[in-house]
Amino acid sequence: MISVNGVSVVFGGFYLLDSVSFLINKKDRIGLTGRNGAGKSTMLKMLAGLQQPSEGSISMSSGVRIGYLPQTMLYKDGNTVRKEAEKAFSDLLDLREEVDRMNRQLAEREDYESDSYMRFLDRIHEKTEQLALRGEGNVNGEVEIILKGLGFTAEDMERKCEEFSGGWRMRIELAKILLAKPDIFLLDEPTNHLDIESISWLESFLQGYSGAVVLVSHDRAFLDNVTTRTIEISLGKVYDYKVPYTKFTELRKERVEQQWRAYQNQQKQIKDTEEFIERFRYKATKSVQVQSRIKQLEKLERIEVEEEDAARINIRFQPALRSGDIVLTGRNLCKSYGEKNVLREVDIDIKRGEKVAFVGKNGEGKSTLVKMIMNEIPYEGALKIGHHVNIGYFAQNQADMLDAQLTVLDTVDRVAVGEIRKKIRDILGAFLFSGEEVDKKVEVLSGGERTRLAMVRLLLEPYNLLILDEPTNHLDMRTKDILKEALRKFEGTVIIVSHDRDFLTGLADKVYEFAHHGIKEYLGGVSDFLAAKKVACFSEYERWKSRNARKAETEYAGDAPGKLKGKLSYEDRKQLNREIKKAEQRVETVENEIASLEEKIKGLEEKMASGVVGEEDYIHYNRLKKQLEESMEEWEKAHEAWEEIKGKKED
């Protein structure tokens, strides 16, 4: 469908992408991966036609429809959620208007026997069939199912879009793309603003989708469950693997090891050549050899190897005083914002050493309970922190609390004590601060960079209860793995608010689901929670599709030509004759196929009777027999359809 041909992207003389080429085929499921800043989002923009390459070209089949979801976008206000989502059907609504206009024109015509009239009738029928295929009568149902799958309630659908936060506005845009059913989805971090159930729903939707998908995501589980092909962008080049993400990481490791060996060999060759040049540069008898070596170096295509992402760095949270057995107890906890009740009569107990995940849809009270534990907001009920509990808190707005005038290095240097000071630069490197970046002031850092820096500070201070609210939002996979391993080794207690299944899997040993103003406890981790919750939305979507398919069969075409109730009009008779002719042709085509297959089978049977046959002949014979059986079944269906249509004419 899409061909990327020798594409380069140049910024100020620097090649972000350097002569890359690959194909995107129908039904491809591609995960686009690479380090932050490697060019993934740039590639998606070019595929969507929003950015042009500096060199090369991107071509696609005619009529290919693209659905593109960027990481950030501008929104227009004024519509309700439902009306905004219905914009996905703008082409369908235009088609409906066109059919209505043509039917009005038809009612005014009286040239029933003319060729022009028949051609016009054909056009109306063609457009009406397009409406039926697009499922015109199912618009409201589709809109509701998709919006519910993405977390919206029935009440939300009539609210104005501007009443929702940026994350929920992004969900509305995602709903519009899903409803439009493009030939190819281009999704840039689609799970960033979704809760754990909505991610699971979107995953199921994409798995069953008939078009192609290209997505950028730091959610390993999402990539593994949706994609079957991984394209890595590294140092301006692309590496194409026909496997999901986790398998890709294994193959990538082998490739990088080979590149590293080749790089080391080349570096030795370069060093030896440079030493030869330096030693004999001023000797006249060696001038020819020196010049030859200089030219060799100039022509040499240098091997580049990206610094190993999987570099093992052993990070541990700082040891702290042991807390009491009961870390946290809450009874009859309630919290409302005005008339909106968020939590009602909640009980919770957390013991020392437990690693607890808070999950559930956005707005159900996860961050609210965290703020209650931190005594940041007033509430009703009794909440008691255990003996010797020292809390390390990572809030979603933690980045705003850093001193803007300090450098990155100074920010962590002020809290680091003891042996860990020797590893400060290594830890900063693990969180994507390396080289001169450690000397940047906090005030010039992006929001994501500040978030990562706040996480590093937390690593370096001694706490025995860590409360982390969406800690992975701005972390790449390598950094998430480092943080996850550090938390696994942490001997204290952890409460994590997160929608990242891969991060929680193997880390959390207890899950609290927030829903309907309360919480429900699941023992056994996030995998057990997801297994218990797997049914709901997507199953409902599948049931809804089946119901509407059956309904469409029994209510074919509404008032369109072809609906046969009572006395047939002139137009209906014309249409019926066409359908009869088409059915006759289908029967005749299948009969010809059967005759051809029988002739081929007869020839092989004669050959087999003579005894001069090989294994390939037997395989071919069995294949023909199977095709004949299928053709006979097809003939029966075609003949029944033909008889049924003829019966309508006789009635």
UniProtKB/TrEMBL annotation:
<keyword id="KW-0677">Repeat</keyword>
<dbReference type="Pfam" id="PF00005">
    <property type="entry name" value="ABC_tran"/>
</dbReference>
<dbReference type="InterPro" id="IPR003593">
    <property type="entry name" value="AAA+_ATPase"/>
</dbReference>
<dbReference type="InterPro" id="IPR051309">
    <property type="entry name" value="ABCF_ATPase"/>
</dbReference>
<protein>
    <recommendedName>
        <fullName>Probable ATP-binding protein YbiT</fullName>
    </recommendedName>
</protein>
<feature type="coiled-coil region">
    <location>
        <begin position="573"/>
        <end position="645"/>
    </location>
</feature>
<dbReference type="GO" id="GO:0016887">
    <property type="term" value="F:ATP hydrolysis activity"/>
</dbReference>
<feature type="domain" description="ABC transporter">
    <location>
        <begin position="321"/>
        <end position="541"/>
    </location>
</feature>
<keyword id="KW-0547">Nucleotide-binding</keyword>
<dbReference type="InterPro" id="IPR027417">
    <property type="entry name" value="P-loop_NTPase"/>
</dbReference>
<dbReference type="InterPro" id="IPR017871">
    <property type="entry name" value="ABC_transporter-like_CS"/>
</dbReference>
<dbReference type="Pfam" id="PF12848">
    <property type="entry name" value="ABC_tran_Xtn"/>
</dbReference>
<keyword id="KW-0067">ATP-binding</keyword>
<dbReference type="InterPro" id="IPR037118">
    <property type="entry name" value="Val-tRNA_synth_C_sf"/>
</dbReference>
<keyword id="KW-0175">Coiled coil</keyword>
<dbReference type="InterPro" id="IPR032781">
    <property type="entry name" value="ABC_tran_Xtn"/>
</dbReference>
<dbReference type="GO" id="GO:0005524">
    <property type="term" value="F:ATP binding"/>
</dbReference>
<dbReference type="InterPro" id="IPR003439">
    <property type="entry name" value="ABC_transporter-like_ATP-bd"/>
</dbReference>
<feature type="domain" description="ABC transporter">
    <location>
        <begin position="2"/>
        <end position="260"/>
    </location>
</feature>
<feature type="coiled-coil region">
    <location>
        <begin position="85"/>
        <end position="115"/>
    </location>
</feature>
<comment type="similarity">
    <text>Belongs to the ABC transporter superfamily. ABCF family. YbiT subfamily.</text>
</comment>
